[in-house]
C-alpha cells in the first residue's frame, strides 16, 4: 500500500427529494490510498450506494467535498467527463444493465483502453484484459447475451480496469453472482487493483467476503459511519453495538444449531446515540 491518497472525501451529505427530503448520507468521510481496498458495509438502505455514487461523481452531494488525486470531483452532467476523471471507474451490481447488448464485448473493453490512452498511457488490447480476468480471449467478438452472469461481471471488471483507474468503485459487484464465484471474483478485483496501484472502494453486504479482501472497513447505519478501522481488528473485537449486531447476524449456526436472534427495534433505536468508533 502506498502513501499516495487517491480519494479523500469529507463530510458528505446526500439528500433525495421528498417532503421532508430524505437524508441518505449524513456526514460521511473516508480516505483511500493507492493499493488499498476499503470496504463499506451495512444493511440495505444504510447509504452505501449513495456514498459510492457521490465519490464516483455520478451524483452531486448536497454538502461536503470529494477530492480525487488532489483535485475536486465534479458530478457528471451533459458534457463528457473530464479526461483526468476517467481514472475513476465504477463496477455496478448488475452487469446486464451496464453492458450494451448491441455491442461486442471486446469493443466495450476497448472503451476503457481509449480512456487510458487519452490520459497518455500506453495502449493495450481487449484480449489482454480478458486474459487477466480469466476469460477466453477468443470471446472478445461475442455479445453480452452469450455469457453467464459471472462472466459478464468479469467483462465489466475488465472494461473498468482497461481504463487503468486510480480508483475503482465497486457497488455490490458480487451480489448478483452465484455463491461459488463470489469470493473468486472479489479476490480477483482486489488483486488486479493492487497490481495496478489503484485504490478500491468495495461495497457489499457479504461480510464473509469483506473479511477476506478489505484492508479497512467502514460500517454504516442510517447514513452515518458507526465504526471504522482495520478489518481484522473490527472482526476480532467490534466496539460499536451496531457492528456487534451486524457481525452477530452472519448466518453461522451456534453450537445448538440456531442462528443469532435479530436485534429488537429498541436496540436499533440506541445505535445512533452511541458515538462513532474510529481508529
TrEMBL record:
SUPFAM superfamilies to which the protein is assigned, alphabetical: P-loop containing nucleoside triphosphate hydrolases
KW Nuclease (keyword) present: no
Top-level taxon of the source organism: Bacteria
Cited InterPro entries: AAA+_ATPase, ABC_transp_ATP-bind, ABC_transporter-like_ATP-bd, ABC_transporter-like_CS, Oligopep_ABC_C, P-loop_NTPase
A Gene Ontology BP annotation from the UniProt entry: transmembrane transport
Secretion signal, residue range per the UniProt entry: none
GO molecular function per UniProt: ATP binding; ATP hydrolysis activity
Protein family according to the UniProt entry: Belongs to the ABC transporter superfamily.
Full protein name: ABC transporter ATP-binding protein
Organism whose genome encodes this protein: Labedella populi
Amino acid at each position: 500500500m502506498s502513501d499516495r491518497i487517491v480519494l479523500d472525501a469529507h463530510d458528505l451529505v446526500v439528500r433525495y427529494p421528498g417532503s421532508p427530503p430524505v437524508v441518505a448520507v449524513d456526514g460521511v468521510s473516508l480516505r483511500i490510498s493507492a493499493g488499498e481496498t476499503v470496504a463499506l458495509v451495512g444493511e440495505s438502505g444504510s447509504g452505501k450506494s449513495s456514498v459510492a455514487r457521490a465519490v464516483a461523481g455520478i451524483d452531486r452531494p448536497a454538502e461536503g467535498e470529494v477530492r480525487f488525486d488532489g483535485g475536486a470531483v465534479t458530478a457528471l452532467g451533459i458534457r463528457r467527463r473530464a479526461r483526468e476523471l476517467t481514472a475513476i471507474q465504477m463496477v455496478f451490481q448488475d452487469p446486464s444493465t451496464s453492458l450494451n447488448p448491441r455491442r461486442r464485448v471486446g469493443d466495450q473493453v476497448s472503451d476503457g483502453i481509449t480512456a487510458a490512452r487519452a490520459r497518455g498511457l500506453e495502449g493495450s488490447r481487449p484480449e489482454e484484459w480478458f486474459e487477466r480476468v480469466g476469460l477466453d480471449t477468443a470471446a472478445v467478438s461475442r455479445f453480452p447475451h452469450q455469457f453467464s452472469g459471472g462472466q459478464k461481471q468479469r467483462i465489466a471488471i475488465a472494461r473498468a480496469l482497461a481504463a487503468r483507474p486510480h480508483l475503482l468503485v465497486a457497488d455490490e459487484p458480487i451480489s448478483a453472482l452465484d455463491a461459488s464465484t463470489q469470493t473468486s471474483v472479489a479476490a480477483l478485483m482486489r488483486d488486479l487493483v493492487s497490481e495496478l496501484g489503484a485504490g478500491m472502494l468495495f461495497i457489499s453486504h457479504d461480510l464473509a467476503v469483506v473479511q477476506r479482501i478489505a484492508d479497512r472497513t467502514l460500517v454504516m447505519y442510517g447514513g452515518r459511519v458507526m465504526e471504522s478501522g482495520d478489518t481484522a481488528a473490527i472482526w476480532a473485537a467490534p466496539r460499536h453495538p451496531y457492528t456487534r449486531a451486524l457481525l452477530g447476524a452472519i448466518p453461522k449456526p451456534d453450537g445448538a444449531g440456531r442462528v443469532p436472534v435479530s436485534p429488537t427495534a429498541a436496540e436499533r433505536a440506541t445505535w445512533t446515540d452511541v458515538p462513532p468508533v474510529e481508529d
